[in-house]
Design brief:
Blueprint: E1 3-12, H1 19-37, E2 41-49, H2 53-61, H3 66-83, E3 90-93, H4 97-113, E4 116-126, E5 131-133, E6 151-160, H5 166-175, E7 180-181, H6 183-192, E8 200-201, E9 203-205, E10 214-215, E11 218-223, H7 225-229, H8 232-239, H9 245-248, E12 252-257, H10 261-275, E13 282-286, E14 289-291, E15 294-295, H11 306-313, H12 315-325, E16 332-333, H13 336-366, H14 379-400, H15 404-425, H16 427-430, H17 437-458, H18 463-473, H19 477-481, E17 503-505, E18 513-515
């Protein structure tokens, strides 16, 4: 049995869950479900990042203490993922005692090694990013992400000898071409590493910031937020019994958005080298969701909240849109019109209608009882099976590359073939001829095999829908996994169809309406 360790970033608690957080979490959940169903031993980690300037500032603005503020937002993230059906194995908080202890242990280890030193530094500090920028990194003198002029700060701090690991990191990336994926982000990291790598300031004086993990070797300083948060990927494994670092860490697959490529592509691997730990297996980087050509952000006020989308469209419909609409690694546009189009065209008119027709005919013509297949199948029956076999193979290849949209496209192309099969065989016409009733039974049996296959392959993408489809087929997990033609025992009876995806109508009032 193989294994895979899947992580989201720790979401910063200066903002409530929005579309960017949701997308990363949904793809992580989809991968986890996919590999677990394929027989892998998986571990799926998510959580919240709770220390730093921004949290202290947000707490002050809300008239509360940082811990109380972090508790509220962290609980909101956890409850949101729970309500969205995210099947994580562990939810970590950087305020968890075990994580704090682990961070201090690693800091002490690296300090004793001589890779942390005390020095004076002056630089342009962005409070939004919580890091120093070099002058050449600024755009027109402003932070490229927050479009604000950073403040020049000069102070004594502790520094991590990141420059010591520049060449080893370059060699590690070059020796494993798929360490960072897609390729454009690997190239971006290597381009950055062509310039001399500066050492990383890893502390903040308590005179300026108290909300952080104290350095174990100097209580007058707290830990820089990235040197705290990134270590969660290992501290969580250390904490969980049975989920040891030795077992899962070599198969670590990080999922991040491109705005945190530098910390994950440079800071984190050099930290691992200094700590004597192997690098992660893969760093997977996705693009932004944009609305009206602008990245979604709390600052711009154009956030999309996951629970609102669940209430309006259903969580599986929303998951499908996210997975089908974005090509992993590239930016994608979000609009409610696009969501509605996907729901109506792909889910209601295609998938939902096919499932409903197949089960309705089975009940109308045979009272729901699945009819036997003959020893030899017609050419069109074999072609139908082969199309879905090929689709599953294509899906597997695309999932290995995190091309979720192409994986789903492969399934929908097979579904289009299944719809043509219905037209070609015309069971609704054949049933009028009593001598062809047995053939109608075979055709419907193959249609139910399509539904059974769809139930299995779509489960990682739309888990609630897969459960509904399995219940309509009245089958268990073992039957779900059986080869084509062997999923229904003699005399098996399926349940009547139920609408899976009502069509969405946006009338002139602008309020969504749903029809069955």
């Amino acid at each position: 049995m193989d294994r895979i360790y899947i992580t989201t970033p720790l979401y910063y608690v200066n903002a409530e869950p929005h579309l960017g957080h949701t997308y990363t979490t949904v793809i992580a959940d989809t991968l986890n479900r996919y590999y677990r169903a394929a027989g892998h031993q998986t571990f799926f980690l998510t959580g919240t990042d709770e220390h730093g300037d921004k949290i202290a500032q947000a707490a002050k603005e809300n008239g509360t203490e940082p811990k109380a503020y972090a508790d509220r937002i962290s609980n909101l993230f956890r409850s949101t993922w729970d309500q969205c059906g995210i099947a994580y194995d562990h939810f970590i908080r950087t305020t968890d005692t075990y994580h704090i202890d682990f961070v201090q242990t690693v800091l002490q280890q690296i300090y004793r090694k001589g890779d942390i030193y005390f020095g004076k530094y002056g630089g342009f500090y962005c409070y939004g990013c919580e890091r120093f920028y070099t002058e050449k990194e600024l755009l027109d003198g402003k932070c490229p992400d927050h479009q604000k002029e950073p403040e020049y700060i000069s102070e004594t701090n502790y520094f991590f000898r990141m420059s010591k690991y520049q060449q080893p990191l370059i060699e590690a990336i070059q020796s494993k071409p798929d360490l960072i994926r897609p390729e454009r982000y690997r190239a971006e990291v290597l381009a950055f590493l062509r310039e001399p790598l500066e050492d990383l300031c890893i502390s903040r004086p308590i005179s300026r910031l108290q909300w952080g993990i104290p350095l174990p070797f100097d209580a007058q300083y707290v830990t820089y937020v990235w040197f705290d948060a990134l270590l969660n990927y290992v501290s969580a494994l250390e904490h969980r019994a049975g989920a040891s670092v030795a077992f899962f860490w070599p198969k670590a697959n990080h999922l991040i958005a491109k705005d945190i490529l530098k910390p994950h592509g440079i800071y984190w691997p050099t930290m691992l080298m200094a700590a004597g730990l192997p690098l992660y297996d893969h760093l997977h980087v996705h693009g932004y969701w944009v609305m009206d050509s602008a990245k979604m952000s709390k600052t711009l006020g154009n956030v999309i909240r996951p629970l609102e989308m669940k209430a309006r469209f259903g969580i599986d419909s929303f998951r499908y849109f996210l997975l089908r609409e974005m090509a992993f690694g590239q930016d994608a546009k979000f609009s409610e019109e696009a969501v509605v189009t996907r729901i109506n065209a792909d889910l209601a008119n295609n998938l939902g209608n096919f499932v409903s027709r197949a089960l309705a005919m089975q009940h109308k013509y045979f009272d729901g009882v699945v009819q036997p297949l003959s020893a030899s199948w017609a050419k069109e029956d074999v072609e139908l099976r082969d199309r879905f076999t090929a689709a599953e193979h294509d899906l597997k290849l695309q999932m290995e590359e995190l091309q979720f949209h192409r994986a789903l496209e492969a399934v929908w192309l097979a579904l289009d073939h299944a719809n043509r099969y219905v037209v070609q065989t015309a069971p609704f016409t054949m049933i009028k001829d009593e001598s062809k009733k047995s053939r109608v039974g075979e055709v419907l049996h193959h249609l139910l095999e399509v539904v059974r296959t769809l139930t299995r392959v779509l489960a990682p993408f739309m888990p609630d829908t897969a459960i509904k489809m399995r219940n309509m087929l009245a089958i268990d997990d073992d039957s779900l996994k059986s080869p084509w033609g062997q999923g229904f025992s003699a005399g098996h009876k399926v349940n009547p169809p139920k609408a899976l995806f009502p069509r969405v109508i946006i009338p002139e009032t602008g309020r969504l309406e749903f029809t069955s």
